[in-house]
Every structure is written in structure tokens, then in C-alpha cells.
Amino acid sequence: MATMSSPGIGSNLDVKSIVTQLVALERKPLGKLQLAATTVQAKISAFGQIKSLVSALSDAIGKLSSVTGWNGVSASSSDTSSVTASAVGGTQPTAFSVEVQSLAKAQSTYSMPLLPVGGAIGAGTLRLEIGQWGGAVFTPGGGTPVDLTVSATDTVSDVAGKINGANAGVTATVLSDASGERLLISGKNTGLAAGFKLSVTSDADGNPTDAMGLSRLVNGSVTNQAAVNAAATINGISVSSATNTFASSVAGVTFIAVKQTTAPVTITIAKDTSTVKKNIEDFVKAYNDINGVLNEATKYDQATKTGGLLQGDSTTLALQNALRAAAQSLSTGSSVFQRLSDIGISALRGGNLEIDSTKLSKAMEKMDEIKALFSSTTPGSAEGIAVRLKGLTKTLLDSTGFFKIKDDNLKRSLDNNAKDQARVNDKATRMEAALNRRYSALDVQLTGLNSLNSYLSQQITQWNKSSR
Asked: Hey, where are the domains in the chain?
């Protein structure tokens, strides 16, 4: 009689393989779930990219929908080596002549030569004041005077260090030559009101007005450059500035005196059409960037019978149609231009916009009309195209708008998918445990049957011998 045997267990079955295959069948739905999760993740990433592009479009059209985006001006100088200029947006076009008589300067003084070089200067107190000189008369400004205590062992270099450390509106250094040491002091700022006065309020020798001790730093000093304002004329009218920058002489215009002029310099303020043109080009590029991504995501390839990631997604198609409708809509805000195509921006097959530079440049000769086409805030059909697009992008990007809703729905789908995968794994794990228990019990039974079979075989063999 044949015996039942199996390596390791009492059955003749490959239990491990059987259990593995059964569990694999139970886990088979995981493949579809994992593929679905990967697709959802890809969609989340795709909508994140589209949202970023819509934000970029919003920024681009913001320059065309706001008043300030159309206020750009340019400032030019007929001689930039002598005078440069700039102007703030909204400044009215104008032209004027500038002549520079003198540049602004900071005060500079130096002391009499002091000997011995490196020797102590003498104890006492120095006072530094910032203010304005009128001839020999000094008028202190509104700041607090700075008093510096000089010890009996301080040298000229030590005094210079204390002046610099006081941060009192001047800088000090020491010049050494054959005649001795000199204390050089220069104002940090230019202009008449940035002059300074160094005086001795106390001298260890008892006389702060002589040429001995600490007084030597002041008495006998020379002002080699007085603090002066820059002086210029605008159309023959005198103006001055504490610096070489004239920021308030002409409303909205700042000009900088570089050097004294020998002839009038003409400053011209004009409308800056180049900035407006660039803003329009930036808008078209931002729009095409979005349209290109949406086209790729929603396309269907007839040859390969495959669709884009968002092919058939109704909300994506609605987004694309809304953007196209706003960009190609009619606006009666301008009496001359009513569509983008009127100024040279036409829609191509596939939805991209293309600029006819020649036509746009011609249209920009009527800047106010282009401005009305884009930025008119009159409700209804007269609303500017950029204003409409700005409103649309604001709604899309809102905290309760399209992208937030889409992101929430996709993440909810991803969470549900994760729960479904967990349930499949849990069910498969429980099934695996149950199968192992059942086959273990079967193994025990088969082991017992094999033992009984072996015993019976032995008995039958013995009976056969005895009956002979």
C-alpha cells in the first residue's frame, strides 16, 4: 500500500505556494487602487501647476487692469555725463533745461602741524557740533553736541579714534608729513546745514584759546572746503539741494547733478510706451503658458488612442473655455478698439494668442484707447478685458474658488483610496492567517493518517507472513 508523504509537513501539498497564490488573488484589487492613487497624485500636481500659471497670469494682467500700469513715464537727459534724471509714474509729459553751477560738498578741515609725532596732545574736552556756517558765525543745528574727553596720554591718533567712535556726523584721520602730524576732519554729509565746528571747552593748561596743549587741535586749523549746497537753475530759476540729487524741485521728477555744466541740459519726460508694450507681451505669454498646459492635459491622441491626464474632465474644460471667452470678449470701453484683435492680438487655432507687432505699435499711438480697452472699470460690456480676466483669476484663486475645491476633492479621493487599500490589505492578511490555520490543522490530520497508514501496512505485511 502506498504511503502519503511530504517534505516538512504531513500532506503532499505545497501549502506555502497555495496560500501565497490565494492571498495574491485577494490582493489583486490593490493594483487598480494603486494605479488610481498615482493618477490622482498626478492630477493634484497638474492642477498645482495650472494654479501657479493662473497666478502668473493674474500678476501680468494686474499691470494692465490697474491705473498705475498705464502711468509709466520715461525721463531722458540730453547730457547724461552732466545731469541724469528719473520720474515717477503719472508725471505729466514735459521738458525743461537744467544748468549746474556747483556741486554739493562736505566741510573739510585740518589742524596745524603738531610735534612731536606720536606725542601726547594734552588733556581736556573737545566739543563737536553740526550746523551751518555764515561767514565766521556758526549756528548749531538741532542735534545734541558731542563732548569728547581727552586724557593726558592721548595722541592725535587717539583723538581721531574717539571722534570716529562718537559717530557725530564727521570722520577723522591723521596725516603725517615732514612738518608733523595733522588732524583731518571731514563731514559725512554734504550741504550747507551739514557743516561742523570743533572747539575746546576745557584745556588742562587752563587756556582753551591758545596754541598750546589740546587747543592746538583747533587754534590755527584751516577749513579747506566749506559745506555747500549744490546750485542749479531750472529754466533760469535758481534752485539748490543739500545733495547733488534734486528730488523736489520739479513735481514727480528727480535729477542728479553729476558735474558743473557749460551749457543747458534738456530733461524730457514722456509717456513710457515700452513698458506698456512689455506688459502686453507678458500678458500674452502668461495666457499662452496656461493654454498650452490645458491643451496638453485635455488632448486625445487618435493615433495612439490615448488621452491626456485631464482629458474628459468637465471642470478643466470649463476653466479653459472661461479663460478663452474672457480673452476674446468684446469691450465697448474704448470707442476705437473693442477686441484684442483690433490692436494686433489674434487667437490662433488651439487658443494661443499671437501679437502682430506692427499693428500693436500703430495702435499704441492711441494709448488712451488701448488703456480703455484693457482697464475700463465701467460695468457690463464696457468693462476692460484685463479687468474681466483679473476678476476671473481672482475668483479661481480665491480660498473658496475653483482650485481650492478641486484640490480638496482630489485629496479626499486620495484619502478614500488609501482607506480602500488598507481594507484590501487587512482582508488579505486575515485570509492568509485563516488559510495557514486551516492548512496547519489539515497537516496535523494528514500526519496522523500517514502514521495510521504506516501501522496498517506493517500489520498487513505481518498477517501475510503468518498466514503462509
From this structure: 31-68+274-404, 73-103+230-271, 108-225
